[in-house]
Amino acid sequence: MWQKEKFKYSDSEVIGQLSEESEVHSLFRSFYSSLMSFSNKFVANMAVSEDIVQDVFVSMWENRENLHTINSIKSFLYASVRNSCINYLKHQKVEQKYLNNYDDIYSEEFFQNQIIEEETDRLIYKVIGSLAPQTRKILVYNLAGYSNPEISIKLGISVNTVKTLKSRAYKILKRNLAENFDRETLKHILGIFL
How far apart are CA 103 and CA 118, in angstroms? Predict the structure, then answer.
């Protein structure tokens, strides 16, 4: 429910509805994948990431009376996950890899870049998911590193059809991403795919 109506309600209205368990479940489903991926960039362990994200939602539910003090649900969730990851890493001084990057986690720039990266991934996969099945397959194969002739053979279509559908897919992707990013950021993102 929350995902479908997220543009219809302000954050304060959504927060007001979080006293209902079904709204928390809806919010959980909307942000779970992005928060899992975000958490995993810190802790590099999907099981731990899953625990962290679930704990954040449980804590949010248990403290729902205090939610009226937050301004943005998304910022609150990402900050809560980040803080939980930092707490986890403080208690896990086992792997030197994490200790080397420990200071970076505290930097606001690192935090912002991670959110942007996760939101970009979410938007890209949303656009890819909305494409026609054949076009989606072409784009997925292309992102996996297959050449146009290899995609053509896999799908049993001509190389020109692959090129045409891939071009259309990138135009759709570019148009959708342009609504969310400035020109330089968009150029950088699309440079990764082309």
Answer: 20
44 φψ region: left (φ > 0), alpha (ψ -120 to 50), beta (else): left
Burial of residue 96 (number of CB atoms within 10 Å: 0-12, 13-18, 19+): exposed
125 lies in a domain? no
| CA–CA distance, 172 with 119 (Å, rounded to integer) | 17
Residue 51 has pLDDT above 90, yes or no: yes
Q: Which two tokens stand for residue 113?
A: 């870049």
Judge if 146 and 100 occupy the same domain.
no
- As to burial, measured by CB atoms within 10 angstroms (0-12 exposed, 13-18 middle, 19+ buried), residue 129 is exposed
Task: Report whether 36 contacts 78 (CB < 8 A).
Answer: no
The rounded Cα 116 to chain-centroid distance in angstroms is 8
**Count of domains forming the chain:** 2
- CATH code at position 162: 1.10.10
Instruction: Find where tokens 């943005």 sit.
Output: 72
What pLDDT, in 10s, does the model give residues 172-185?
A: 888 887 777 777 77
**pTM over the 0.85 mark:** no
Smallest CA-to-CA distance from 74 within 29, 120, 35 is with: 35
